[in-house]
Automatic annotation (TrEMBL):
<dbReference type="Pfam" id="PF06170">
    <property type="entry name" value="DUF983"/>
</dbReference>
<feature type="region of interest" description="Disordered">
    <location>
        <begin position="141"/>
        <end position="161"/>
    </location>
</feature>
<feature type="transmembrane region" description="Helical">
    <location>
        <begin position="70"/>
        <end position="90"/>
    </location>
</feature>
<feature type="transmembrane region" description="Helical">
    <location>
        <begin position="102"/>
        <end position="120"/>
    </location>
</feature>
<dbReference type="InterPro" id="IPR009325">
    <property type="entry name" value="DUF983"/>
</dbReference>
<keyword id="KW-0812">Transmembrane</keyword>
<protein>
    <submittedName>
        <fullName>Uncharacterized protein (DUF983 family)</fullName>
    </submittedName>
</protein>
<keyword id="KW-0472">Membrane</keyword>
<keyword id="KW-1133">Transmembrane helix</keyword>
<feature type="compositionally biased region" description="Basic and acidic residues">
    <location>
        <begin position="152"/>
        <end position="161"/>
    </location>
</feature>
Amino acid sequence: MTIERLTGRPDLHPAADAQPQRDIWLSVRRGLQCRCPACGEGAIFDGYLRIADRCPACGEELHHHRADDLPPYIVITIVGHIIITLVLAVEMFADYSTTTQMILWPLLTLAVALVMMRPVKGAVVGYQWALHMHGFGGPQEDEAALRPRAGNTDKKERERP
């Protein structure tokens, strides 16, 4: 999907057209399945939430991802909607004691959040891969990320004579 299709204006970054198009929805779906966004075969995770450095099936490098805080934000939003809906439904149709509810809802919230975290993080990595973000674009993007930027105010840069 190009900027021009969304806004009617030409793409501001013509170099993006040089990269092959990747199917966003297929990549996100593969990420939700905790599979490599490139091939859909290899496992994307090395541990519970640790992304593998590369796909064991196709060798695609995955260490570039920058999922950071987005997956927890998405999970909190989804879990909040699910739990609040359930709390309101139970309040309307059932009469559980306060003690029962104080035990039930936090445990259910924790369980749903822990179950959802891996697929959501996989989907975010798949989305980044499909859009060539954060080093998933190729060697020219990796080299550009390593070059120092003009006006760098890094402490080491300031200390140089």
